[in-house]
């Protein structure tokens, strides 16, 4: 199902975020209303096992801008792909995670600059980050730089504003079960020389909820992501025409 043609569709995957999701939705609603944007917040509940879905349904009953999509658990990446595709008729797509680690403060800057760019992204500034995640980020950045180009530094940032008319060709070309689609999308942006804008955004430490993938499962998933990022590079120009 394709959403109505709104000015902005926010795609927000959520998994077990009962402690944060109410504040996150309310903060983004307040900010987008302040900016005078015609928007919908599409929240994708990825099989949460806590009270997240109940909270979301209550929020949607009070907030006409919130649309809840309840789905079986498939993981963060496939959920994002689904959200992008199902809302590809909106003029702009904005993806943000539901953990409240990145706030609303910088979105106005992205929104103001959107007429000059096709892809606008936040470069995360983090005071502390586990060594394994630093290593993963560095390797991802190196792989994307070598194979796709290096127009963007934070290749997997979950804070991205995208012109749908251009990027939807990439969304529909991705494998349904890609672990880290945002990495490949960022790479494609560099490969096809789209107009990019990157700003620093502050990332806070998580205070509620839980990380959806941990320890050895993370390592296995990351190796899968690297493999998908590399192999997709040799298919993308056949699958996406600009």
Instruction: List unreliable stretches of 5+ residues.
Output: none
Radius of gyration: 17 Å
Number of domains: 1
Specify the CATH homologous superfamily: Spore Coat Polysaccharide Biosynthesis Protein SpsA, Chain A
| Helix content range | 40-55%
What class would the helix/strand composition place it in? Answer: alpha/beta
CATH architecture label: Alpha-Beta Complex
- Largest beta-sheet characterization: 7 strands, mixed
Shape descriptor: globular
Order of helices and strands: EHEHEHEHEHEHHEHH
Structural commentary:
This protein has 242 residues and is of the alpha/beta class. The chain has one domain: Spore Coat Polysaccharide Biosynthesis Protein SpsA, Chain A. Helix content is 42%, strand content 19%. The chain has a seven-stranded mixed sheet with strand order 3-2-1-4-6-5-7, with helices on both faces. β2 (39-46), α2 (52-62) and β3 (66-71) form a beta-alpha-beta unit. It starts with 7 loop residues before the first strand and ends with a helix. The mean pLDDT is 91.
């Amino acid at each position: 199902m394709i959403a109505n043609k709104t000015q902005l569709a926010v795609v927000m995957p959520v998994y077990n975020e009962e402690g944060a999701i109410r504040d996150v939705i309310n903060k983004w609603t307040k900010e987008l209303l302040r900016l005078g944007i015609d928007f919908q917040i599409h929240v994708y509940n990825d099989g949460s096992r806590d009270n997240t879905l109940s909270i979301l349904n209550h929020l949607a009953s009070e907030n006409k801008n919130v649309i809840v999509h309840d789905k079986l658990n498939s993981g963060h990446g496939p959920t994002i792909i689904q959200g992008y595709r199902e809302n590809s008729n909106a003029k702009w797509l904005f993806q943000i995670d539901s953990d409240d680690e990145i706030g609303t403060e910088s979105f106005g800057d992205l929104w103001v600059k959107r007429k000059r760019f096709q892809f606008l992204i936040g470069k995360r500034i983090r005071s502390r980050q586990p060594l394994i995640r630093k290593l993963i980020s560095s390797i991802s950045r190196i792989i994307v730089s070598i194979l796709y180009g290096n127009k963007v530094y934070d290749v997997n940032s979950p804070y991205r504003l995208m012109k749908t008319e251009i990027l939807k060709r990439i969304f529909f070309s991705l494998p349904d079960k890609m672990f880290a689609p945002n990495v490949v999308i960022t790479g494609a942006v560099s490969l096809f020389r789209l107009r990019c804008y990157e700003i620093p955004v502050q990332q806070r430490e998580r205070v509620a909820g839980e990380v959806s993938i941990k320890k050895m499962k993370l390592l296995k998933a990351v190796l899968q992501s690297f493999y998908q990022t590399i192999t997709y590079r040799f298919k993308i120009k056949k699958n996406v025409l600009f």
